[in-house]
Design brief:
Keywords: Membrane, Signal, Transmembrane, Transmembrane helix. Pfam families: DUF6627. This is PA2779 family protein. The chain is mainly alpha-helical. It has one domain. The longest helix is centred in the first third of the chain and has 22 residues. The N and C termini lie far apart (55 Å).
Length: 129
């Protein structure tokens, strides 16, 4: 029993000594662009969601067999790069012209997420999960 107590005491000494060593910390300066980046992405996400709330886009989505609310919910789960890409396509689309290209892109994104099992928007897809 004495050897066991000595082993425990020795291991506690080593552990407590290791805990008392100073920890290293690092810091960096955050640029204004990085700090404002999160708010600008939220604005982009709101702008894309607002685009899907328009009546003409809703009608076009429904004609494609997509639930407009599911598309808006899906925008909330897109990555920042995907939201930026959609916002760029919305900006580049002529007024009232190339809405079908954007809707087709959303259709493909929703179709892929259905096949991967992340969403269940289309009844004709089967998940690979």
């Amino acid at each position: 029993m004495s050897k066991f107590k000595r082993l425990i005491a020795s291991s506690l000494i080593v552990c407590l000594t290791g805990l008392s060593l100073p920890m290293q910390a690092s810091a960096a300066i955050v640029s204004t662009q990085e700090a404002a980046g999160t708010s600008s992405m939220a604005a982009e996400r709101d702008r894309v969601a607002g685009f899907f709330s328009r009546d003409d886009v809703r009608k076009s989505l429904e004609s494609q067999g997509v639930d407009p609310q599911a598309a808006i919910d899906r925008v909330a789960t897109l990555s920042d790069a995907e939201v930026q890409q959609l916002a760029t396509r919305i900006d580049n689309a002529p007024a009232g012209g190339d809405v079908l290209g954007i809707i087709f892109t959303i259709f493909i994104v929703l179709l892929v997420t259905d096949i991967l099992g992340f969403t269940k928007v289309f009844p004709f897809t089967r998940s690979i999960r």
